[in-house]
Amino acid sequence: xxxxxxxxxxxxxxxxxxxxxxxxxxxxxxxxxxxxxxxxxxxxxxxxxxxxxxxxxxxxxxxxxxxxxxxxxxxxxxxxxxxxxxxxxxxxxxxxxxxxxxxxxxxxxxxxxxxxxxxxxxxxxxxxxxxxxxxxxxxxxxxxxxxxxxxxxxxxxxxxxxxxxxxxxxxxxxxxxxxxxxxxxxxxxxxxxxxxxxxxxxxxxxxxxxxxxxxxxxxxxxxxxxxxxxxxxxxxxxxxxxxxxxxxxxxxxxxxxxxxxxxxxxxxxxxxxxxxxxxxxxxxxxxxxxxxxxxxxxxxxxxxxxxxxxxxxxxxxxxxxxxxxxxxxxxxxxxxxxxxxxxxxxxxxxxxxxxxxxxxxxxxxxxxx
Amino acid sequence: xxxxxxxxxxxxxxxxxxxxxxxxxxxxxxxxxxxxxxxxxxxxxxxxxxxxxxxxxxxxxxxxxxxxxxxxxxxxxxxxxxxxxxxxxxxxxxxxxxxxxxxxxxxxxxxxxxxxxxxxxxxxxxxxxxxxxxxxxxxxxx
Lengths: 369, 142
Prior knowledge:
The structure holds two protein chains of two kinds.
Chain A: E1 47-53, H1 57-64, E2 71-73, E3 76-78, E4 85-86, H2 94-103, E5 106-112, H3 124-138, E6 145-147, H4 158-167, E7 172-175, H5 182-198, E8 202-205, H6 220-244, E9 250-252, H7 263-269, E10 282-285, H8 291-301, E11 306-307, H9 324-339, H10 341-350, H11 354-360
Parallel strand pairs in A: 1-5, 5-6, 7-8, 8-9, 9-10, 10-11
Antiparallel strand pairs in A: 2-3, 3-4
Chain B: E1 17-23, E2 28-34, E3 43-44, E4 49-56, E5 58-63, E6 71-76, E7 80-83, E8 90-93, E9 98-105, E10 110-116, E11 122-128
């Protein structure tokens, strides 16, 4: 057997302007003649899943105390735009989630308030209690979790956000449906400026489905409304967000509704002179997609912008099957570039995840398989 | 414009150092640093055309020739090569601290890696561009 080449396992090259090499995995060991072309199984670094949801008891209680949607009646969730749905409490148990994550090789899960609840869009008085409940419960989830902050968009409070970021929240999640017009971006700008000052990322996640979706099948919001929201928010970001916030790192949920695949249409019908230059500070998580959609997005944006998102408990972590280097980039190196290893370590020291900080920080990295 | 890449040079015998300088809908541009130990192995660029400009040191390019020795050319500083999507080649560093700028259009997406089995039959596998190309063994006459 006389093999000429073999793929080696490494993360992709860093983009210009990003820290070089520090997040790379070492190259594969030389193989003996006759070895398969496929790289040998190797211990993978612990993955970072940037998109999970979990409801701490404090939030469950706050939702139960509400008289109108969004609310919980027992474990039945009532939303204005979706059919009532029964929630399995076990899905929001941190210990069970941690075990699932460990089984998937996920060493750190970033969790957020479910934006489709629409808490951020409630009147300030109504939003205060569930937001406070999230703030209190999210920092106590235990090892292996770090939370995204949530904030009222009706009464943005950048000082409160900065306190959250200093207290262990990694960044801010906002609903896509509230980031579409110039007015939307102006309304959110105090929060986005606070993120820029703090060097923290924005996570744009689908917001509540409109009431018109309530008569549709249960899967309709996930297939239609959420995707459309992300598509619109991606182009709204390009039109209004990036010009106003040149330093902001942004994460789009669900591959931004595949909006980046519209590059040819942008060239034909978009702004004059648009060449589709990849923005190295924009990342897309790949929840509920698989090899075809992820590979198509990689073809447009390159591998460096794609990060692991599972959307657990609503879906499981995807396996892109794009090779070992892409696997390592999506699950580990790219999330670290999105978040910043210092931010991860700082947040972990503020939460119960301190022990995991050592396992996830660059050089002292520990393998989980 | 050397100021775009001069502060990003690094050299390693065990892995090529490369940095993405630009990627848009039409082209991607890479900085690659080489030592004489660095070798891509035989590969193609799937649907992309490419160009390589050597800015420091030297690279050696080989193209496989059925039943004969590979066709080789050495590319020195200030020289460049270009090729279509039908081109199969391997690149090696030919001098310490060699530096090249690579451009591909459309931007690299997938690549083909080649091997030859014990019967002399050539095989191709498709890999993500994220994989660092490298040979398993010393160069083999095709």
